[in-house]
Specification:
single chain; alpha+beta; Nucleoside Triphosphate Pyrophosphohydrolase; 13 strands; globular
Length: 261
Amino acid sequence: MSDAPASADIKPAATILLLRDEPAFEVLMVKRHHQIDFASGALVFPGGKSHAGDHEPAWAEHVLGWERFGAEQRALRIAAIREVFEEAGILLARRRDGSPIGGEACPMEVRQAVDAGRTAFLDVVRDLGAQLELDALTVFARWITPPLTPKRFDTWFYAVKAPDDQLAACDGRETVDAEWIAPAEALRLAEAGERKVIFPTRMNLKLLGQAQSAADAVARAAARTLVTVQPQVQERPAGRVLVLPPDAGYGVVEEPLENVM
């Protein structure tokens, strides 16, 4: 794992690229509510900030892969799984007997209670007799928001194949739509102005689009050397651009600043 300078102004966050192959290679994306203050109305991968409850030591008894990760990665993976549960209703977990969790993992009111902080996610998982699959998540990317933005996040992106027997449904609060979409189609819609897709999402859709299947995407992510993306603003004759590290997997990227603000 690559390291980057820590700052109290940079909040840890986690995002899930939930993948499937039927009827085609697609990723789950959600549309942010227009009243949300960050990326309002945008098509994004489910995700959000890490919460204090994601760090509870009691999670040790309710996850798979606990011993494989340090405290930071445990909490980030729990946060990623919690966020996709809250926003799309998918629970990346198995019952203690190893059987999958099918259909609707929990009623909408339970998801909303977790999102609002009225119910601890740990209690929901415990009551289901389930264990979160931390070891099913593969690091896909890590992005740190540049200083020019009002809110800064240290966001870890994880790729994982979606459960075959669960249905995705938006929460109606943070997200107002959930859709499975091919990476190339999401990019086409963004280019045509039919969807709002923010710069980091667009870059990761392009990277994801290099794969041919969910397994291929996960394998590619596992094989890549993780380079933390900290976009830099640089001057060019035509104006300021946002530049990505050339060895991060995205190729040479010099995005006009007006396209990312």
